[in-house]
Every structure is written in C-alpha cells, then in structure tokens.
Amino acid sequence: MNTEINIQLRALEPTDIELMYAWENDKSIWPVSGTLVPFSRYTMEQFIKNSHQDIYTNKQLRLAIDRQQGADNNHETVGYVDLFEFDPNKRKAGVGILIGKMEARRQGIALKSLNLLSEYAFNVLLLHQLYCHIHVHNVASIRLFSASGFCQSGELKDWTFNDGCWNNVYVMQKINPVL
Q1: Which of 6, 58, 73, 110 is the most buried (most CB within 10 A)?
Q2: Which residue has the higher pLDDT, 72 or 90?
Q3: Residue 164 neighbours by CB distance under 10 Å
Q4: What does the DSSP 8-state code read for residue 3?
C-alpha cells in the first residue's frame, strides 16, 4: 500500500453529474446503499444544484474524494463520502462512503477519506458521534470502519431485505474523543 496517499475531499461540482449518475445507478451497489429505483440525470443535477446549501438546511453533505494523479497535481474523482441524517441538536450524523473506481479500492483511500471526514465532523461541526449500518457479511467495510475508529455497538436483526433475504446489520459508532 502507498504510504503517502494524496487525496482531498471537495464540494460537488456540475462536472460530477456523470460519475454520480453512473455510480448511483449501479445496481451492484444498491444493497448497501438502500437504493431501490434508478436515479434520473435530472435528479442528479438537482442534487448537485442544491448541494451548495448548508448542512444545517439539507441535513446531508456529500463530498467528492479526489486522488492526485501524477506530479502535475491533476485530480481524479474516485468516490464520494456522505454525512446524512445530520442532527445538530443531538450532535450526530450517519456516514456513508463509496469508492466507485475499482482500481482505487484497497489503496487506503477510503480510510483516509473517513478520517478526514471524521476530523471535519468532530472539529468543525462539533459532532459528538458518527454512526453507520454495515451488513454483517460485508467484511471489507467492517474492517474499514474499525480501522477508522468505529466500534460495533449493536446488531439489527432482519434490517434490510435484498434478493429475497433478510439481512442483519451491525451498528457502528465513532465517538468524538474531545466532546
């Protein structure tokens, strides 16, 4: 694994529409994202158009994950990371991540992205906790979130229904060590 992973999290731009459209409509991702129907290009355009709004208004924040390409500092978008169900009163939010580019997986990009997002959530938004739901058989995601400091705090039985089967999910949480 590359010890120096050069990534940045950035706000969404209109140029992200095509990637978001492709990734959100990739049916292989739907079981972990909870998606049940395809998204239209128009829906993606509206999502990006409204993404400039404050997280306190939208209760959600999606950031693009860009990886530096070569010495000329060109960046390639390899995924997205989300804060959702943002609750400023209870100071918590859900976390989701997608590394959409297959060749960018297993390089430490997701871990660094989760760590950057956690720093932002804890130090800027002053959240007390982040949480996620992960299918019990999704070993890669369990390892990823564990490596980022999330701990399993429970198991929800028959929480999702995919391919005719009920699936359990782990609830994982990361508590702000300062607050």
Answers
A1: 110
A2: 90
A3: 5
A4: S
pLDDT at 74: 82
What is the residue whose two structure tokens read 């010495």?
A: 71
* Residue 148 near residue 97 (C-beta atoms within 8 A): no
Give the max Cα distance, the chain. 49
Pure H helices in the chain: 17-24, 30-33, 41-50, 55-58, 109-123, 139-147
The whole-angstrom separation of Cα 20 and Cα 40 is 10
Three-class SS state of 83: strand
Q: In what order do the strands lie in the sheet with 61-69?
A: 7-10, 61-69, 74-87, 92-99, 129-135, 165-175, 151-162
pLDDT in tens, 88-137: 999 999 999 999 888 888 889 999 999 999 999 999 999 999 999 999 99
Model's pTM, two decimal places? 0.88
Highest mean pLDDT among 46-50, 78-82, 105-109: 78-82
